[in-house]
Amino acid sequence: MTPASSPPSDRYLCLACGYAYDPAQGDPTQDVPPKTPFADLPADWRCPTCGAPKNRFAREV
To answer: If we measure between CA atoms, which residue out of 33, 31, 28, 35 comes closest to residue 8?
Structure first.
């Protein structure tokens, strides 16, 4: 794993609406399979709840 990549278990929160992307579940609404790390989501992936872009997410601490 490179320092820039995120561990597969890191959850990311949407700063616009609070949706939590959980890699263990993926995103079935956009055909993202389980165990897909946030860093591996497509650049055009958006929050399934509010449509915010990927850059509006922050890693949950």
So the answer is: 35
pLDDT per residue as tens digits for the range 1-11: 344 455 567 99
Q: Which amino acid is at 11?
A: R
Query: Burial level of 57, CB count in 10 A (0-12/13-18/19+)?
Result: buried
Neighbouring CB atoms inside 10 A of 39's CB total 16
Give how far Cα 8 sits from Cα of 15, 16, 17, 50, Å. Answer: 20, 23, 22, 23
The dihedral formed by the CA atoms of 11, 28, 54 and 58, expressed in degrees to the nearest 10: -10
